[in-house]
Protein: ABC transporter, ATP-binding protein
Organism: Furfurilactobacillus rossiae DSM 15814
Amino acid sequence: MKPILEVSHLSKKYGSFTAVNDISFQLQRNRCIALLGTNGAGKTTTMKMIYAAASITRGRITVDGFDVKKSPSNTKRALGIVSQEDLLDGSLTVYENMIAHGLCYDIPKRELKKRTQNLLTFAGLANYDDKQISDLSGGMRRRLVLARALLNHPKVIILDEPTTGLDIQSRHVIWKKLDQLKSEGVSLLLTSHYMDEVQRLADQVLIIHRGKILASGAPDTLPAKYGYQSLEEAFLALTDFHEEDDHIVQALS
């Protein structure tokens, strides 16, 4: 089966600095790939190139068969974005935030209202449609961002730290919603610093360090593949945790 997302020999440079260095991977339909790496490893930069928010220095990305460089509008229509910052408009209600976002996709008004109502129900926010954003808890805000990302019926959802700062109950609610989306044929590309989240959601894990993919595999088999006992141990060892930790200790002493 042809992958819904294909990243081939992708690189990104900012002057002399290489943020992403020749990475390749494929995401199949109704699957989840997690990009696991420290801050600055290149995860968010990779995602931004996929949804055309950052230019590509070298390489190729296709989404649903469309080349990101040649057809950015078509690729954006196949994507839903859940970024680290929710970017919700505090001057609008929950319902109005959904409508305003949907207008960016030229969805007919009647259809947009129907999708908004259905997605607010899906996210457990149907009774909060007239609430201001400031009235929502952190978990509700993240569920609203997820609902908003689904308005254009995306085939791939980009999830950049989707549950950061949430309590465990809110995280489980988000996870169940993502499981439901996968069962309906949606593919997920995830970044997270939570090992339990990666193990819970991902079918494949890519450990990225300094812009390169160092390890790849299913979360339950990757550790043994590279000679480690757990995913956390593999991640810490492969990303030079001890060397960086010594540097931090010296700086604080």
